[in-house]
Specification:
Blueprint (H helix, E strand, L loop, with lengths): L2 E7 L2 E3 L5 E2 L11 E3 L5 E11 L4 E8 L19 E4 L4 H6 L1 E4 L1 H4 L30 E8 L4 E3 L2 E6 L8 E6 L11 H8 L3 E11 L2 E4 L5 H4 L3 H16 L11 E2 L1 H7 L5 H5 L4 H11 L5 H11 L7 E3 L5 E7 L3 E8 L4 E8 L5 H18 L1 H6 L6 E6 L11 H11 L2
Parallel strand pairs: 6-7
Antiparallel strand pairs: 1-2, 1-5, 2-3, 4-8, 5-6, 9-13, 10-11, 11-12, 13-14, 15-16, 16-17, 17-18, 18-19, 19-20
Helix pairs in contact: 8-9
Length: about 425
C-alpha cells in the first residue's frame, strides 16, 4: 500500500515544503468549506490510481489526524499531479476540522451513513462482510470523563474488560468535538453535572483478537451546538474583559497575540474562532453593540482581505481595519459601543506597511494615555488624522448609518 502524508490548509493539500495542490484542483467544492486554522492538520492518504495522460491521482484518506511525523518537506513527486481526486470522506472527522461549510455542497463527497459503521471505500479497506463477521457481545461500562481524550470528531479512550488481558481502545463519534476541547474537559464535567460517562459498545473477536465496535454515550451525545453556544457566550464575555500583560508600545494585537496570551484551558482559546473576521462575527452574535452596522461594514466591505485584523484591548475592546485608497492606506479604529470612527491616513509610499501599523499603534497608545477628547485637542500625528461621528446612533426614528458611511467613504482616497 503506497501512502503519503499531506499537510492540509485552506490553500490546499501540500505534499512538500513548496508544492501545494489547491482545492480548486480537486473534486472537493473549494468555495464551500474552510478549515480551522487553530492547529496544523495532516492527512495520511493511500494513493489508489494515477492516470499519466491526465496527471490525475486518486486517493483515499486513511487518517485525518496523522500528525506531522509522516510529512516530508523535501519529498519529490515522481510524476506531476494536476488533479487530486478524493474517494468519499468520513463525515465526522472531516467536518470536525472545518470552521465553515455548506452542508448541501459537501453531501456528494462524504460517505453515506450506514448504521454504526460506514461502508468501505474500496476492497483493500473493506471490513469483513456482515454475514461473515463473528457474533458480538454487548458491553457497557462507566469511565471518568477526564480520562477520555478529546480529538477531532469525537472522544477516545481505553477500558479493561473481564477476561481480556490488555486494555481495549474505543472511540465515540461526535462531530461537534475538536481536539482543542481536550484542555477544557473540566468545563464539560460541570456542564454535564457528573464526573463519569456511560459507554455502550460491542465486543468482537476478529482473527482471535478482541476489538470494540464504535461506542456510544448519552453524556457525550449531549455535547452539541446548544452546549457549545453557552460556552462561546461565556468566552466572548471573558475575552472582552481580557487584559494581557502590558508590554511597552504594545497597543495592537494580532489574533495570534491574543490567543497566545490565553491559557490552554481557557474557554475562549478552545471555543472561539481564531480568525479575526470570524471572531468579530462571533462577538456581534453574542453582544449587542451600538455600532454593530459600522463594524460589519468595515469588516465585510472595506477591510483589506489579505491583512489580518488587529485587536485593540485598551481603552476598550475594538478593531483596527485597513482600507486601501488610490493614494493612501487608511487605518480605521472602531471600538465596541463607540460614538466615533477614528481614521489615520498614511501615504502608500511612506516606508512600509509594518512601519505604518507601528505608527498607528503609537497613536492608539496616546489615546489610552490622554483620553479620546484630549487626544483630538492635542493632535500631533505626522500624517492625516480624521474622525466620523456616529450621528443618531441611539435614535430609532433616524438612521444615521448612511450619513456615516458616505462621510467615511469620501475620505478614503
Amino acid at each position: 500500500m503506497r501512502t503519503i502524508t499531506l499537510k492540509i490548509s485552506n490553500a490546499g493539500a501540500r505534499y512538500n515544503a513548496a508544492g501545494v495542490i489547491p482545492w480548486s484542483a480537486t473534486n472537493l467544492p473549494a468555495e464551500d468549506f474552510r478549515f480551522s486554522e487553530r492547529t496544523a492538520i495532516y492527512w495520511k492518504v493511500e494513493m489508489l490510481a494515477y492516470d499519466k495522460n491526465t496527471a490525475r491521482l486518486q486517493v483515499q484518506v486513511l487518517d485525518f489526524e496523522a500528525g506531522d511525523e509522516g510529512f516530508d518537506p523535501s519529498r519529490e513527486m515522481r510524476s506531476p499531479v494536476r488533479m487530486l481526486v478524493f474517494r468519499p470522506l468520513e463525515e465526522a472527522p472531516f467536518k470536525a476540522q472545518l470552521s465553515y461549510y455548506k452542508a448541501g455542497a459537501l453531501k456528494h463527497v462524504l460517505l453515506p451513513e450506514s448504521g454504526p459503521e460506514k461502508p468501505a471505500l474500496h476492497p483493500a479497506a473493506a471490513p469483513e462482510k456482515e454475514a461473515d463477521a463473528p457474533a458480538g457481545k454487548p458491553v457497557s461500562f462507566t469511565i471518568p470523563l477526564l480520562e477520555l481524550t478529546f480529538a477531532n470528531g469525537g472522544v477516545k479512550g481505553t477500558t479493561d474488560l473481564p477476561g481480556i488481558n490488555e486494555p481495549l481502545p474505543f472511540k465515540i463519534i461526535n462531530d461537534h468535538i475538536v481536539a482543542e476541547f481536550d484542555a477544557i474537559k473540566p468545563f464539560f464535567v460541570k456542564a454535564l453535572k457528573r464526573q463519569t460517562v456511560k459507554v455502550s459498545t460491542t465486543l468482537r473477536f476478529l482473527g482471535g483478537e478482541p476489538k470494540l465496535d464504535r461506542a456510544t454515550s448519552p453524556q457525550i451525545a449531549r455535547i452539541n451546538d446548544d452546549m457549545l453556544e453557552l460556552f462561546r457566550a461565556r468566552a466572548v464575555k471573558s475575552l472582552l474583559n481580557f487584559d494581557p500583560a502590558k508590554t511597552v508600545d504594545k497597543s495592537l494585537f494580532t489574533p495570534e497575540d491574543v490567543f497566545a496570551s490565553l491559557d490552554d484551558d481557557e474557554l475562549g482559546k478552545a471555543t472561539l474562532p481564531h480568525d479575526g473576521q470570524d471572531l468579530l462575527a462571533e462577538i456581534l452574535r453574542h453582544k449587542k453593540v451600538r455600532n454593530a452596522r459600522q463594524l460589519a461594514f468595515l469588516a465585510g466591505t472595506l477591510h483589506e482581505p489579505d491583512t489580518k485584523l488587529r485587536y485593540v484591548l485598551s481603552p476598550t475592546f475594538g478593531f483596527v481595519f485597513l482600507a486601501t485608497g488610490q493614494d493612501g492606506n487608511h487605518f480605521i479604529l472602531e471600538l465596541l459601543d463607540s460614538h466615533a470612527t477614528y481614521v489615520w491616513s498614511i501615504p502608500k509610499d511612506w516606508e512600509n506597511r509594518e512601519a505604518q501599523f507601528r505608527s498607528v499603534e503609537r497613536e492608539i497608545a496616546a489615546i489610552g494615555t490622554l483620553g479620546r477628547g484630549q487626544y483630538r485637542r492635542t493632535l500631533h500625528f505626522e500624517h492625516e488624522f480624521w474622525f466620523v461621528i456616529h450621528e443618531n446612533a441611539d435614535r430609532g426614528l433616524v438612521d444615521g448609518f448612511p450619513r456615516w458611511r458616505n462621510r467615511l467613504l469620501e475620505g478614503l482616497v
